[in-house]
Amino acid sequence: MLKPFLINIVICTGVMALFIFGLEASAVARESNNYKIQSDSLNSGGLDESSSASYNMADTIGEVGTGDSSSSNFGIKAGYRQMDQSYISMNNPGDVTLNPPIPGVSGGTAEASLTYTVSTDSSSGYHMVVRATGTPAMQSDSSSFSNYSPSTPGTPDYDWNLAGALSEFGFSPYNPLSQAPKYKNNDAACSIGSNATDGKCWYGFTTNNETIVNKYSRTEIDGEDTKLNLRAEVRPNGGQQAGEYRAVLIVTAISN
Known about the structure:
The protein is mostly beta strands. The chain has strands at residues 6-16, 30-31, 36-37, 50-51, 56-57, 67-70, 75-78, 88-90, 96-97, 108-120, 126-132, 146-147, 167-174, 210-215, 224-234, 244-255. It has one domain (6-20, 87-255).
């Protein structure tokens, strides 16, 4: 009789912050239904950009109140090109083990989830991508799980469905505020409708970045949560080798 599996998934979380000029306050200089100007500056002269073989210069004439000022309560970057750069942060929930262990003969399903909290002051928001470092994602020293394969290529399955494979490993994202359209549903199918439903719309990892969240505005101060559901299933009497299987996943949040 085969021994039970212990399926361990190692999650490595990376955060990339693209430095985009932005303001701490939510106000903008002017906007309409078609555009938004984050800030502007009124000056009486200056070339803005000038250069030669030996220098580069950006200058202005006539603006007052420029430079940095601060106290224990505030920090201000005032004047020409003094806007603060945007920031983005994301927690790393660490490693996780799928449970329960799957018996090698009778098969079964093991699950776990990870929650990532992203905070950014970028007025254009952020997006989150996931990928695996190996192909297939879930491997042991001598065997592997197939990456989850949806019934329609490129479109997540509304319900998990182990079709023809012996075993599969996949994921389902959940962010009720900013879920990517590909992972939204109409209560029956994915990539259609406007619903974000926990535990629906299953897909497989690859070594390419897969966008699971798209937000087009700054987050609240406490950030915004994205839950990543993970599932592995073995078909009964399929002959999957017993052992410890691991998947290394990279989750990255990038400011827009």
